Amino acid sequence: MFNSTWGRAVIMSAGVMSAAAVAQPSYHASWSKVELGAWTLTPVYSEEGGAVLSVDGFLALADPSTRLGDNIVAVWYERTAEGWSAKSWGTDDPWKAIATVKELMGIGDAEDERWDAPSMGDPDAVPAVPEEYVVGVLADDPLAALIAASPERDSIILTMVALGYPAADVPVDAQDECSLAAKMDGLAAASLDLLQGDEATAVHRAMQTWLTHPVSACVSMSGTNFLGKFTTTQIGAWTVPLYDCEQMLRPVRLTVDDWELRWCRRERWTDSRTTTETRTRTCRNWLPPSVTIITQTRTCTLKRQMICHVCPLDGTTGPIPCPPTTPAPPRPTIPPPVAIPPSECSEFLWPKSCTDWAPGCP
Known about the structure:
By secondary structure, the protein is an alpha+beta fold. The protein is built from seven helices and 14 strands. Strands 1, 2, 3, 4, 5, 6, 7, 8, 9, 10, 11, 12, 13 and 14 form a 14-stranded antiparallel β-sheet that branches. A hairpin with a 2-residue loop joins β11 (259-286) and β12. The radius of gyration is 23 Å and the shape is globular.
């Protein structure tokens, strides 16, 4: 059962109903990230009065390009009274996992961009109760006990993932001398540096905290994938949307089983904003043995489009006139995706112009 988070939801609701005198912390998804191999971990932190209190969880999402078949695409690691728990979902849609974490932690839709999830997912996905997750598979998997007891756990999981099996190769689950709780404590301590103090030195301080944490003594820590990368992001304002309109023939659904090709008008608003990313990487030198922390900053562009199709449903034939472009019609503010006949609007958030980059070692 998801006791700790459901319990938190009950407590928060009770607090709102009983009294406003006792302040309750709010929970947020972080713009900053931890990248471990093909996985990106978004810290979920608590905040009160504008001050960050602690990192209470990580939602790990897999790079979609690395997933095969029925691979697990999302794992939720949450701090509990006993240490850390791990949950997952039997779905290939990361937005279902995001929707669940949002609901359980009380995180609003306004922070959807912070999850760094594929834009082709469904931001309105219905939450689902997650399942227990252990050693790379769901706890009720018939192979879970065998995998947990095997000294070759890592090789087995990598093979299962390569075959498209419902499994995940998150580096924090790797077999080594440290417990999952110890690793997550180390990542939480490092991630706190991303959220507090001088932003210009945040990634450097985070990597220093990570490398000096007791968990760094674990065997798997020598792997470059597990050392990972820490990223902070500064977000710019959206530009004024560029507007264009064209007439086109488009299938229109008249009834459940009846479609007709009709003239429609497509309106499109395209705006963008810059994001400044600062990322860190560790570089190892063997003679003499040493570790150097390298940080770099890049400016990336994020593009967003709202596309609306206006199609007549009253039997009108011929092209639908476009409105004047000067001044351009305002960009719709309705939350996507929206279908309000005869207008149908969808919003798309395109990937950043710079993805999967890392500072170079000297």
